[in-house]
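Shipment paperwork, digital attachment
Item: protein structure file
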Amino acid sequence: MSPVTRLEIVGTGRRRRWSEEEKLRIVEDGNSAPRQASATARRHGISNPLLFACRKAYREGRLGKGGVCGFVQATIVPEQPTHANAGESQPERDLRSRRKSRASK
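Attachment content:
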C-alpha cells in the first residue's frame, strides 16, 4: 500500500444558499417538459425535498411570478336599500332560544 501524499478536501459541509432567481429557474426548468423530479434535481445538484419545497412555494405565489400575490385596493360602501324592502326592518334572531339543554339528558 502506498503512503498518502496529498489529501484534498472536496466540500466544507456548509449549506448552499440558493437565490430566488436560481430557485425560479430550476422550477421552470422542471415544469418545461414532462420528466421525473429526481432527474431535474440531479441535473441542478439539489435534493428532491428542496425541489418539492420550491415547487410548492412557486404554486403558492411565494416564489417568482407563480400564483397570485400582492394586494388589491378595496372600498367598502354601505348597502343601499332596494325598493322591495325599503322601510322594512329585518327581525332580530334570538340565538339563545336555539340552544339545547344538556341537563335534560
